[in-house]
Amino acid sequence: MGNLIKYEFRKTMALKGIILVITAIFEAMFLIGIGADDEDMIGLSVGLLTLATFFGVLIIGVFGIYTLSKDLNTKRSYMLFMTPHSSYSILGAKLIENATSIFLGGLFFILLAVVDFTTLAAHYGEVDEFFRLLRMFFNINIETSDWIVMGLETLSSWTYVVVVGFFAVIVCASLLNGRKFNGLISFLIFIFICIIFGKIHHAFLEGIFGDILTYSFEAVMFSIFYYIMLSCIMYVISAWIMDNKLSV
Amino acid sequence: MLESIQITKKFVGKTAVDGISMRLEQGHIYALLGPNGSGKTTWMKMVSGLIKPTSGEIRYNGNLIGIGTRKEIAYMSTEPYFYNWMTVENVGKYYQDFFDDFSMDRYNLMIQNMDLTGKLKVKSLSSGMMAKLKVAVTMARDAKIYLLDEPLNGIDLLARDAVMNMILQAASNDKTLIISSHLVEELETVVDKAIFIKESHLAGVYDVEALRVYDNISLADKYREVFSNVSMGGVR
Prior knowledge:
heterodimer; A: mainly alpha; 86% helix; globular; B: alpha/beta; Rossmann fold; 10 strands; 33% helix
């Protein structure tokens, strides 16, 4: 399975390179803005870096689904399905690559934001104030464990969305291989499942915890469990369909 | 031994393969012959496990086609299927990573003989160069069954000889080679059995030597007889 994961990373390398280059350009703008004391440029670059963070992580997730679609609906599918690996391994490798990329991508952007805000605060001579605010934010408002579970919830919910995307693509490739509107039908299945399981999630949260708008450690833990369970179920069903029904 | 047992594949509105049963023995080179759309490629893809049959089954040494049999069956598709970012060298490394029976030394020798270089980008290859690459990477495996779908497509006359030599070098008593091609005359000199598929059905499996000796007919003329009912008089 190690080799499968290696090649999944290789397939997404170009995209990650592009995201990195774009981020580097915005970061350079930010640093030039600080060096030149150009507040307009600083403001613009912070806005662009925020967009790069949001879309960077989003695109990495969506690209995993796109790659699977290409791997099932084009001739390059032979590269995977000629190898002596089960669909569970093939899909598992894709999932591991995607979850790892989203995690590392998210971590990269968080670290970059911390470095940039520290630089900004240092430049304007407000480092102490910045760190005081940071300490206040971390120590008073939210516990470390809360940060961890919120991070895990984000990762598990993202992974769940990607698995649903995988499922929709696999169902379409198995039943509508190469036909018109394959992509559109995959997207509709994806939206339909997300809505249905989203409503069930809300119903559970309301039924068990009452107010779903207020933060609760238990509610977040429940959500993590819910997303992981759904991801596992969808993964097993998807791999079974690939093993038994998919022709490439 | 490879057994195709009442194997059928239906697509929407079309039956690509219809109840084909046959046994292929090791130590033979089979030509898989039939007009376009007769079901040759679909049958090959079912043997390699890429397409799931609608009914029937295919067994290799008693085992159903599946993940285990992919270790022993090497399939070469007629269409290019490598990743766009790959170089000729990357293709070899990919096969080395996934197939225990792949020999990098043999691969390097073959691509050298085919006038290919490791640094060439797959997406920049001409159709002839791509055909050579596909054959080289497939034949660099030490598989038990080779399924070669139109290996001579798009290759010039001289390269054809090199490709056929490469294929023949893999032939041995413990292997089965199945080659589909429209170039019946080209195959006639190298195969010893011929499988005719006509309109999704098996039209017959023939011993090429027996056709020549007992029926006084060449493989090409047998092809004409089966598929167009035009007799060319045979080869005497």
